Amino acid sequence: MDCPDFLSQEEKDFVESIRQRFSEELTSREAEGKAYLCFFGSVAVARILGAVEGNVDKAHEWFQTLLRTLSDPKTEALVQDVLQRVADCKSEKRDGSILPHYDTVKDFFNVQLCAPKLSPDGDAIMYMAMQDLDRDGILQHLDWEHWVTFSRACTVLHCVILDEISRESNRMARITLIVDAEGLSLEGMAHRTFSRAHRRDVIDSFQQKVAAEIVASVYVVNVPWTIANLFGLCKTFLPAKFLQKFRVLSGDSLKDTSFVTQCGGQEQVSSFFESRKGLASDNSHTHDRHQLFNMNTWPDEDELQSIAHLREKFGQQISERKQRGADWPCFFSDLALARVLRGNERYFSEASNWFQAFLKKMEKYNVDAIVKEMTQRLESGEGSRASFNMLPHADEIGKYFRCTFSAMKLTPAGDVIWFIPLGDFDRKSLAENVQWEHFVEFVRAMIVLRAIEAQKLSEGQHRMAKCIAIVDLQGSGIGTTGVPKVESFDEPNQKNVAFMREIIIDILGPVYVLNAPWVAVKAFNWFQSLVPERFSRKLVLLDGDGTADPDFLDLVGESQLKHLLATRVGLLSGEVDGDFGDTVVSAGESLSKCRDLKRGESISWATTVEAGDADSWLGVSDIISSATVIFHPELNAQEVAEDEVSLEELPILASDGEVTREYTADRDCVITLCWSNEHSRMRAKGLRYHIELQAKPSSDPK
What we know:
Elements: H1 9-21, H2 23-32, H3 37-40, H4 42-51, H5 56-70, H6 73-88, H7 102-105, E1 109-112, E2 124-133, H8 135-141, H9 144-169, E3 175-180, H10 192-210, E4 215-221, H11 225-234, H12 240-245, E5 246-248, H13 257-262, H14 266-274, H15 289-294, H16 301-313, H17 315-323, H18 329-332, H19 334-343, H20 348-364, H21 367-380, H22 394-397, E6 416-421, H23 427-433, H24 436-461, E7 467-472, H25 487-503, E8 508-514, H26 518-528, H27 533-536, E9 539-541, H28 550-556, H29 558-566, E10 580-585, E11 590-597, E12 602-609, H30 615-618, E13 622-631, E14 644-653, E15 659-664, E16 669-676, E17 685-694
Helix pairs in contact: 1-4, 4-5, 5-10, 6-9, 9-10, 16-19, 19-20, 21-24, 24-25
């Protein structure tokens, strides 16, 4: 392998180290005629060092990944095919037209991979108009494998062209990329499903593994003014290396001398804009993603037809599952498959890819055993509602993580509410005191239980029920830089997050965030005004605890929200949810305690108010005792009984001594005990409380 003079001594030394360390693999490739210059030549190898900023160890790892990627027979065949097409090309212009599947791709994607004129520095220039990338059309009408093959072939062709230009110009040539956003609405700037699939099958699995440091700069032109300004604002927070490559311009920049010169001159830049065809301007294929996100109806006829195709494609696997009784409704019913479709914006190819990966994960993680166990636990309880205590190792993990897995009352539409107070999520203590395998079992069971519950609620309501999450940041330690990191927990927990994404889809609805820092709320609200709704629809930041937001109160229920907020203990600050204690209730504040009760169980709570130093001139210290009960919803009842009651408010004076109250549940419920000092704006009150639970008598009928 030759080593051009324009390589630095450091680069030459690195190339030599690669030749020595991987001599066996390279020698074998030489003998087989597979030591492709565009990937294994000295220029291509030297690029790797620049891609990892001179870190030789990382560069060696990168080269090893390159070898593994190109050793795949399918990938090897693609590289050889592209190289043969380049060799057979009789014209000097080598563009996408010589690549595999161009004839079918060209109706959905128009791009100039390498413009006739190079930049003044000698870099290749690539022009891509976003209005000529019909992402909906590709997903709906093009064989996805054809798109992947064509896109990967583009990368191979670029590597070939850049290697040739580098040797001819005696410098390391790269690409100047021009991305033209003209004609693209703000809503159309991103396409979640296409971007996810393209990144998975082209960028992450191929491009980033074979093409090192091939892009010199990126110009994004004709960007909507708001996005251009937003990028300018965000530059403060972006890495310098990223910024060095990017320039975002709000106009076509034909009057920008620097831009025009760098991109090959006025004539060439003008020709770029004239080449636009508007392939993506036809919106007839565009799904109403907002409607899909909010859709909670039973599968319609079009979806049932796609579901039938899914069943046909995976007929053998589904049939085998049915024979052994493992075609669980939460994953294999028509409704569950409708979730797969809607979660992939009704693109059949993506829904098929997701489901195929899902089936593999089911086997890998033995999810069938989890489904069986959690189904039994849910069915052994009353109703169709799931609870934290149903999960494995709940007692052990509950010391460091508490949440209301399923609130008693559903939303008006019938969705379940999941309340997660991050002040009760002590990640550091959990990682230190709980066997990690136990937490993994807990999380996987939690995710599966969420799917089973959603299926049962959906069947009862004949609609697609979802889970509305409320994340409370009170006491979490969050600041302007976010929630404090706990490396011993956060890094291994990424596998749990991946499991959730691989097993359930379109079950989680909007996430409401309470008690976020004021700056974060204002910044988020400002950002929402600039970007399409679908960018931020999953996350809703509310001022304070949400009690001042009428829409949120209608969704959750005012009394239930107070219940949920009262479940917070403050595990991160060392608090314990005890049944007795001495405390001080600050002026204008209150103390609340929540307890679950089964039918027939009783609860009593004793209260003593301590006399204060100021009683002689401000009056006897007092606390208002009250309680609110929310009953388990009767989903299938013809006549819904009262679902909430409030016990009478009782003023308790320091002079009363110990006062005991009690309540017996005639249905499953959650009761919130409240000791309020909200009526006193001047002084705090000392309080002693003692809570006792009594199980129902054994003589009670079950």
